[in-house]
Amino acid sequence: MAGAKKGEPRAILVVDDEPEMRRAVMRFLAGGYMEYEALEAENGEKALALLSPRVALVICDVNMPALDGFEFTRAVRTDPAYAAYASLPVILLTARDAEGDLEESWDAGSTLHVTKPFDVAKLGRAMKSVLGH
């Protein structure tokens, strides 16, 4: 991994219950973020289990079984068990785009909110603002 510093986070966690959407985001990451390992989870519960100091960013759907994206983000931001990840960037990637949904996204503590179907340029800009490249 060119330019990686020892101990620097080097993974992006993609969370979505729909396999095709996870694959689409993974293809996007493979095209421009190859220096990051891509991790996958099908819901918020499994995503919480995958959190580690290596994770630099979470891209998470909202509507999922077990633990949805809002609940996942709230847990990361407020649950003492995940205090080490309280400032971890979380981009909520969702079909929910009503004003109330955006407000709930911010209230949950999301870093950014990108609507589906996602525009690769828009997701790229969101990631650039979070990761700095």
Structure notes:
This protein has helices at 19-32, 44-50, 69-78, 99-108, 120-131; strands spanning 11-15, 37-41, 55-60, 90-94, 112-115. With 133 residues, the chain is an alpha/beta fold. It is 40% helix and 19% strand. Helix 4 links the parallel strand 4 (90-94) and strand 5 (112-115). It has one domain (11-131): Rossmann fold, CATH 3.40.50.2300. It is globular and about 35 Å long. The chain has five helices and five strands. The chain has a five-stranded parallel β-sheet, with helices on both faces.
Keywords:
133 residues; alpha/beta; 5-stranded parallel sheet; 5 helices; 5 strands
State the major sheet. 5 strands, parallel
Give the C-level CATH assignment.
Answer: Alpha Beta
Structural class, judged by helices and strands?
Answer: alpha/beta
* CATH architect. name: 3-Layer(aba) Sandwich
Report the helical percentage: 25-40%
> Could you list the spans in which at least 5 consecutive residues all have pLDDT below 50?
none
Strand order of the largest sheet: 2-1-3-4-5
Radius of gyration: 14 Å
**Count of discrete domains:** 1
Mean pLDDT: 90
The proportion of strand residues reads 15-25%
Shape: globular
Q: State the separation between the terminal residues, measured CA to CA.
A: 15 Å
What is the fold named in CATH at topology level?
Rossmann fold
| Beta strands, count | 5
Number of helices: 5
Write the H/E string, N to C: EHEHEHEHEH
